[in-house]
Amino acid sequence: MRKSVLSICVLLFLIMPLNATSSLSALSRGDAVLTSNEVNYAFSHNPAFLTSKNFSFLLPVNAQIYNISGLISNDLIANITAISSMDEESMVNGLLSLLREFSGTMPLLSMDESLSFTVKGFGLNLALREEVITTGGSVATTLSACIEGELSAGFGFDIPLDEYHISLGMTPKLLYRVYTSPVGIETAVDFMLDSSLSEAVTVYEALALSMDIGAYVSFPLGFSSALVLRNIGSDYEAAGTDGSVEELENPFAIDTAIGWSGKWSFISLQLELGLRGWNNIRDTIDLMRSFNAGMSLGLTDFVSINAGISGGYPSLGLELDIFCIDLIIAYYWQDYGINYGLNPRDIIALEVAIAFD
Amino acid sequence: MIKIGKIICIILSSILLSCSQPNIYSNLGLYDPIKERAFETVKLEENRAFNLLSISPSYSGRINLKYTPGADYEILKQLKKNDVTALIQTVSYLSRFGGLEEYLATPLTANQKTVCRETKAFATEIIEEVKSCIIDVIKEIEEYNQSIDSLVVTDFFDGLIELISPDKGCDTIEDYIAIQLTLDIIASSIDMLYTILIDLPTEATTYAWEELTEGDGFLSRADTITSIRENALTIVSILLNSASEIDLIGGNIPSFINLETIIGKLI
Fold this sequence. Notes:
A: Porin, B: two-stranded antiparallel sheet, 10 helices, 7% strand
């Protein structure tokens, strides 16, 4: 068992430098970075940012734990001790106790890794995301595992004008997704103990093409605006090992934002108001979900405090930039309810990134 | 500028600390995620067959079971899977952010009380019959040394009948939730029967409920046993899935019965 755990750790360690998108900093700002003009968000938010630096290299790795306050209130340490005991019955009971704090389908844990670089408007990005998803609840709760990969190549260019500055960019993407059908806790524990996948588990695999197109316009006095067309491409299908097929959504969305930034000595401030997926807004609830706002307050060149609201939920983050190492800790809320607002859960996340630009 | 930074930090901290819950629109009183339940109903007519598929949506078009109710009933329409999850999340939301007791004590209207009472009577009738049918099946499994105890299953169904006992009344949302969850368990129990039946006929078929409960129709002993043995895991998992919903809500509503012990024995 220890060998298999060690093998997975080594594999993850090897994968990390090869793959991964710096999304955590954005999440801590209410996901409001469409007008930030930072190359870090060129592949995740606005392809027009490909032109913001002549050269950049970014390698972020982050981990996120979901429903953290629920997990802590339910004796997290005792449950983790039980799960790591390698005793089947204790592991099942520990997992069930831990998952009792969830209700509905949502992630339990996730990790993101990516590797991207840009040179004079051209860029390449490899991203990987691993996720454990639970249906939450009680005795019959299930778990499934999902790995998503994304390979993007992008190109951006500037159109300098007298008082304005326009940047345009596009990033075609190759998406790969592999995931398992939901399995009961006993099956999941069996897998943890001997790394063999039960025959009852169906593995789904999907491959698709998509593209993002973005525009960024900077105005005088620090004002800016952005327009991004996300997920240009159709929905796609995942084929299961049992011959079944599942439809996966790739919803086309139009995102817009206006922003303002200013800098005084070593203090800087970025503000943004945005509307994501406004082409899909049908009613007031959709509008609530779509609206986001964020700020980043740079206290020195090394420390920033981020805050924002996304879909009605707050987020906070602290960013430390020490030489080529960026460290971000974020705490934010997201909703996993069947109806909007019904199942808000908090998430804590940590990211370490190597960045040169 | 440092002062501006401090002021922004203080404002943000104050906003966060003053929030009773994370959704900003709910905090401002602009939005309430708790919606009134739909109370959709189904009319059953005496001596007319009622298709149990409207209770159990699985296997649609493959096998139909016709049930003839003994009296006129107007019953609650069973909630869809997402609606049951929404109900669980509603209880979970209120237990986290306050207001659960008031919500559960919300009185039903006179018409809703009548429908809930009739649903209880109908549900009790169905549970008794499903119980007798499944107990017969479980006894077959016992003979083949499968690890399911018919006494435990009897307790399980008796627990359901207790959950919707007329003594508990039909006055509040709490009673409504109890009935809806029981309907869900009934649907799962019927799914168990479908799981047993599905391999038996080769084409889409409609059966009368009596063919099952009387046990001397198409269900030959050998066929039934083969099907049960092939589908034993599915049968148990269907029951567990549904029972866990009651267990989950039961964790938030102390007066509900907790089925974990019974399910533990079933596993």
